[in-house]
Amino acid sequence: MAKVLIYTVCSMLVMSHVETCYVPGSQYVLVPETIPTGYLITKVEAVGCDSKSLRLTVSDPTFSIDSSGAVAALRPLWVTTKGRTFSVRAQDYSGQQTEMEVHLYIPAIYDTDTKGTGLLRRSKRRWGPPPLYLLENDSGPFPKDLETVVSDSVVKCQCEVFYEISGPGVDEHPVGLFSVIPDTGMLKVHRTVDREEFPKFRLRVEVFNKATRQPTDDPLNIEIEVDDMNDNAPEFVDQLQFTVLEHCDTGTVVGKVNTTDKDKADTEHVKINYQLLSNKDLFAINAQTGVITTVSKSLDREVKDTYMVLVQIKDLSGRPQGLTNTATATISLTDINDNPPTFKSSSLKATVKENESEQLILRIPVEDKDLINTPNWISKFVITKGNENGNFRIATDPKTNEGLLYVTKPLDHEKNPNVKLEIQARNEAELSGTSSQWMSIPVDVTVTDVDEGPEFTAPIMRLTIKENLPNGTVIGTYKAVDPETETSEGIKYYKVDEPAAWINLNRDTGELRVANTIDRESHFVKDGIYNITVKAVDATAKTGMGKVVLVIEDENDNEPRVAPEMFMCENKDTNLASAVIVAEDGDQTPYSAPFRFSVATGHEDVWSMNYLNGTAATLHQVKELPSGFYKVPVMVTDLQGSGREQTVKVRLCQCRDGVCMDKESSVSFGPLGILAMLLPLLLLLLLFLVLGFFCLTTRDTAEFEDLGYSGGNLLTSNIEGPGDEVDCIPVLPSDLQQTVKGSVKGSLVNVAWPGQKSFSTIGGQSMHGGGFQQGLSTTEMQDYTNTNQYNTQYFGNQFTGSGATLDYRRVTQDSAYHHNWLTNGVYLDQKLSYMGNESDGRYADDIIHSFRYEGAGSAAGSVGCCSDHEEDNNLDFINTLGPKFNRLADVCKKT
């Protein structure tokens, strides 16, 4: 039989704190391929067991075990490369049974020499032991043998070898935990190991030839697993804070206790058992899951809202040898609305004055045991009786949770001096978890008396009357009553508002009489309704208001009326026109439309009338008439036949776009038209003024006889300096004035005498060239005039000049005007000559200046208008003409 290397994994150690009987861990046993009968497999050592009551059994009947723990084969058997496994069970007086697995395996076989031969040869056995096990917290003595590692390379090389190890626990942290005896290969452990810190070690074992120091085999990796011991008590993971509704059903889940254990998972060391150590009458906990539930429905938050429950956890499934831990779980009860609000008294009373409104009359206190400021606590009040008329309302004070009773509509002491209410207190949330009901309380409200003003028998009184009632007609009586005395004594009546003053109100009796004609068609009446506001005043000056509504019935007091004027458009084809006549009536049906229309008797041969609708008819022209205005008598009556003949002024005309056209049009000028007409005249005036600037005159002074008067036109003035502009007094007849009117700055009129050269006139004075016409002196002109030499035959009835034509006959008709004209010309000429004297310094720059002669050839002739007069006359009087004359002299001075 081949040499068998048996590796027993665990050395059993009874810990002083372990009280449980068990066989720890597992064993891996190296056995030959064929095991004979009686072959000793291994020896199992139980830990913490009572040797007298200890009972060891194996699960595989092929093996047997004695009281010392030795396992042997009962018959021969063969072990395959997959190995073989069976269990060893241990049990003592405690009744708890533990189990350990024993794994049998054979060494691996490798083919080491098959190169090129094609033949199978017997291969050497490689050294490869299974994992080794080390019991944690082993107390020694140390160093302690763990296992021997042997390489069969010794047989092959026929030499001495030695062993070396390395890895964690040797030359790596934790250093010095393991060592090996080089000559024998015995592994040793030198101190206690904590599995929770180092659950496994992986060592590297090498074998060397002592002589050559060369390895004789491949390195071997050995795993050393630290077998767990129940050295860690279970722990609570989370804070134990739970909530549950009060009065919940039995079995309601409160929460789950979560735990952990540092020992090896999936072992008895981490199997936790849960227990409650307090309040077992109210709560329970599942021993395997740690779920807490209720066992009673008597949990009442109002009695106790928080429970402190002691929870114990124990490993080893709660066996006595298990490690324990405890903690306190806090279970809070959440509120439900299981308590209705209650009143502090059995009844309440309140007092309110009559006629008051929106007044707080009562506070209603309540108590509620539910959680404050939650819907289960907040009160809601309802008036269940006595508020049929809506005189009251009730609200909740959010701060005090009291009910607030208000009167919203005025109460009447005389009608109801006492009101009985019933008020119910509720919560925002509905009741649950209780058989209680909402509570109610009676409230007695007393209405106190107040001295009130009179009240009308009806706030609004409606009276139906006819319009046009005779003045003085009684239409009704509007009375008021004192609520205290219930009589009308001492009450006075007044109208507050009556827009049309149709009704008189008796101050003492309230009687209503017609004062003025009532007209339904008045603008004071809206839809047949006329309102009167009335006030009643008692002896204490208290008032009451009322309203009288007059419903005015219609009468046929209005006749239909048509428009007094209209026009008719002539038809181009027939020359006969027509138009629509519309009638209106202020009355209502049946006193108005439909109307009847007709042409008055005697006019049927000219006009006819056709019915169009109830308010309109068509007036037709029967025979041809010239355009113009016509008066057509029309008869219009209402449905009752009431109406009269009316005259309609009709204009017959030709129309365009529905509007009459005038055959004769007159021209009217607007502002622009008038301006356009005046523009040529203004341009002509401007031309004369420009020409006047170029007038030439001589410096010679002409003397004229001073006739001693000015003809009422030129007056002596005391003005010595510049003064206002003064227009010349007109000296010509009206027609001539329109042409030659003006002051010294007025128009220039060139007059052509028949048979003579043309001469110019300024204000009636004739001039030619640089002075008077040599062939026609002033005297000669006067003589001609007196002798009527300038008659219509000689002059052709006209003066002709540039820009104007003068009817000389009209000029000479009045000798006085003609004489004045000539006289003024002489005076003006003297003034012009006098002002042309430059030596006269009295007028400074106002003196006239000479202009150069521009030569002949002008089509207008000479513009020289200021000729010298040879007569040596005294011209001082001309100085009185003022500064305006200086301008004229300046313009007309001869060069």
| Residues in helix, % | under 10%
Rg from alpha-carbon coordinates: 74 Å
Structural class comes to mainly beta
Terminal CA distance reads 180 Å
**What number is the mean pLDDT?**
77
Unreliable stretches covering 5 or more consecutive residues: 1-19, 109-125, 696-717, 724-813, 838-845, 856-871
Question: Quick one: overall form?
Answer: elongated
How many E strands? 58
User: Helix count?
Assistant: 8
* Largest sheet properties: 4 strands, mixed
Order of strands, widest sheet: 1-9-8-4
What would you note in describing this structure?
Among the domains are: 235-334, Sandwich (Immunoglobulin-like); 342-448, Immunoglobulin-like; 455-547, Sandwich (Immunoglobulin-like), CATH 2.60.40; 561-660, Immunoglobulin-like (Sandwich); 687-892, no CATH class. The protein is built from eight helices and 58 strands. It has 895 residues and is mainly beta. The longest helix has 23 residues, at 671-693. α4 packs antiparallel against α7 and α7 crosses α8 (883-892).
